[in-house]
Amino acid sequence: MIPIAKPIIGKEEQDAILEVIASGQLVQGPKVREFEERFAELCSVEHAIAVSSGTAALHIAMLAHEIGQSDEVITSPFSFVASANCALYVGARPVFVDIEPDFFTIDPQKIEERITKNTKAIMPIHLYGQSCDMDAIVKIAEKHNLVIIEDACQAHGTTFHGRPIGSFGTACYSLYATKNITTIEGGMIVTNDSQIAERARLLRAHGSPRTYEHVILGYNMRLTDLSAAIGLVQLKKLNEWNSTRRSNAEYLTNGLSEVKGIVTPKIRENSDHIFHQYTIRIADRDNVAQKLKEKGIGVGVHYPTPIHQQPLYKDLGYSDILPVAETASKEVLSLPVHPALTKDELDYIIDTIARI
Ligand SMILES: *Cc1c(COP(=O)(O)O)cnc(C)c1O
Questions:
Q1: How many domains does the chain have?
Q2: Residues 297 and 339 in one domain
Q3: What's the whole-model pTM score?
């Protein structure tokens, strides 16, 4: 079976973990601080705060920006459910805006019509490793005085017009096992706003600036030094892995260009796609996915149900009609693109699809 995702964790990571265990500093210690520094450099920002997951990062970002009851957060319905759920966690309301058909990211043209006096934030989601149209989004946010919280959980090292993703507002990353780099479970919040950074640090550890002093209601969302040690090793390999993903994507796109009925991924101008997912559009998707699995190719559907149509959201009274996202959810199919793929495997994927 060619897996859809393959975490690459080897000897260097093992050694790093053993070193931490021997040191006795296991949680939120020196490795976490070093990992935060390196991660801030990746995003060209002042502050990075390591947390226990991408979901925790999004949750803390909402709290740090004091988004809560009766506030609205504009976001995309075409994502993993954690993106929108974070608004629900703090009592706010996610407001869904349809996506751009070419890039699967929030359509800036449709944002302003959904802004109300309760809108507090825009949460662009850099889906599959590709940036949203940040020029347009920043312009709208400035005009309406809205906070930007980037869901960069799939976009480690992505740039937009040469500027790193994560530097446009407060941004949240996931370091889950299948992301482009991993700490197994883990997350990161990055920001240039030192007040937000300080609140985020308090929120992740029981609102505690000093041992047994608690100034706000906080949580336990800490990252361990074991995780950070793995993350430090992974971070060094990110650029190389991202470029291997890009060349794998190029190879797939060339190979599939002759196959009728497939739309290969489009790359936004002046932007850098890191191909967390290589996602094609194809009619009769479920049938093709089944056949590919039978032939030993691990494929994924990201995502089969847009968030506003999830039972949870229907129960909350959502009845939006968002045709671009709804069509995408029926047509998208992610193929393996990870850096551990061999040329033979890529050829096999292309040939198998062509034959189907
Ligand atoms: C992975 C992911 C998350 C959640 O991250 P976890 O680390 O799994 O909590 C949120 N949003 C998007 C777009 C993701 O891909």
A1: 2
A2: yes
A3: 0.97
